[in-house]
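hey so u asked for the seq, here:
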Amino acid sequence: MVDLHSLGELEAYLEGENFFRAHGVVADVFLHYGLSAELLRTSAPPQEPCRLPLVACRIRPEGERPRIAGAYRVGDWERSSDDAGYADAIVAAQTAIQRGDVYQVNLVQHLSAPFDGDAAGLARALAPLRPLVSRPLEGGGWTIVSASPELFLARRSRRLWTKPIKGTLPLGVDPDALAQSEKNRAEHVMIVDLERNDLSRVCEVGSIRWPELAAPHELAGVLHLVSTVEGQLREDAGLAEILAATFPGGSITGAPKISAIDHIAALEPVGRGASMGALGTIRPNGDFELALTIRTFAVVDGRIHVWAGGGIVWDSDPEEEIEESWVKLRPLLAAIGAPLTEAAIR
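ran it, structure tokens below
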């Protein structure tokens, strides 16, 4: 595993290893949300709760099987902020929206707990949730394990596409209720528009289309609205340029993206760690598939970390937004045998 510091370094490393001329190998990569710090105009980013690289990359044989993982144990969950603190951040985001500074801000909560055992064992427990990236990524003293159902970005030849998720309800609710929710649909369409703009920076003029818009899908134990936005990639667009144009994903920032990133840095009490970045695989022909690291765990220095939140708009209700965080987390924590207790969510 190689630790890097920028998207440019990632492309240069792969070039230096002759990766793009190789056969029978793939590169596993992780992109930390902290890469967005270079886009900040106002607040400095908050302190990270765990040490992780900004970019990690491992070139491996394409057919390599994950190692057999061992057992683990998770202790009691603790929050970095309570309901009141999260609600205050939501109200502050809404005040910024009323001023016209921003239209939507994605805010997340952070939880952590003591952890013993083999962090790679989490992947086996999360497999029934059908994550896009099921293989754990292990580095020097850290492990990232994801249950994310959301595609940040994929490339096949000159086709480039993303599948943003926005809008959430628990399973068991009529999917039409989610699709017809004015709040959820408005929140979703804002991000689709942002993704259209991001893809247009590296795609041919006039090639952007959205063959699926705000369709209900059952993903990772909840109901979500999902769209597909795609375009035809410019022939001269390289890996670093493509990622710089689109990272971080719009569904975990808000709109407009730069303003939302500023407000996230000002309002979240701790950094986003393994969450809200990207995780996946790059191939020597330039194709790749990267999941957005929602529903993602980091195990570092004897603690397990997880993050969850949602998009805040002008008519968000703080209590409902807090509950949405738990709706997203409950299936994950149940899957790994470490459910939330009443004490943890108070």
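DSSP finds nine helices and 18 strands in the chain. Residues 2-61+77-341 form a domain with the Anthranilate synthase fold (CATH 3.60.120.10).
lmk if thats what u needed
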